[in-house]
Design a protein that fits this description.
The chain has 154 residues and is α+β, with helices and mostly antiparallel strands. It has helices spanning 3-24, 36-40, 44-52; strands at residues 57-59, 63-66, 70-71, 77-83, 88-95, 102-107, 115-120, 126-134, 137-147. Helix content is 23%, strand content 36%. Strands 1, 3, 5, 6, 8 and 9 form a six-stranded mixed beta sheet that branches. The chain starts with a helix and ends in a 7-residue tail after the last strand.
Length: 154
Amino acid sequence: MNRRNFLKNSLMTAATITTFAGLLIKPKRVFAAWPKESFDITDLNESIKSVYGHNNVNETSKIKLKAPDIAENGAIVPINVKSSLNNVESIMVFVENNPQPLSCGYNLTTKSQPIIGTRIKMGKTSTVMAAVKSDGKIYTASKEVKITIGGCGG
């Protein structure tokens, strides 16, 4: 057996084992399981209700929402949310004047820090709201972001 055949056979064996092992591994949770209906709702209050089952929210200073005062391009608006609340279960970002207010959502585990950073799309000047679920209650922080060039087809 020459060196070339040895390497070829070794790589083929490794690829076969890796493929077989990949078929045996099954995830415990599937993360892309958000109800599509929540993203299709066009009213802010109904969108909040579809995610949490109610729209009883409390404004708090324990959530820090960092967003630009003026975003030059609505297609890429940077958003950062940080919370000092205990037992944070999820963080959702809503944009009031978007065609679909629910922009993004994150389920967190008890071992994760309640900090997210992302970029969202905004069609026009609007209030951005970060909703944090902690101990079964919903807390929010809001900020108005002015858009000079729309990102949702505007």
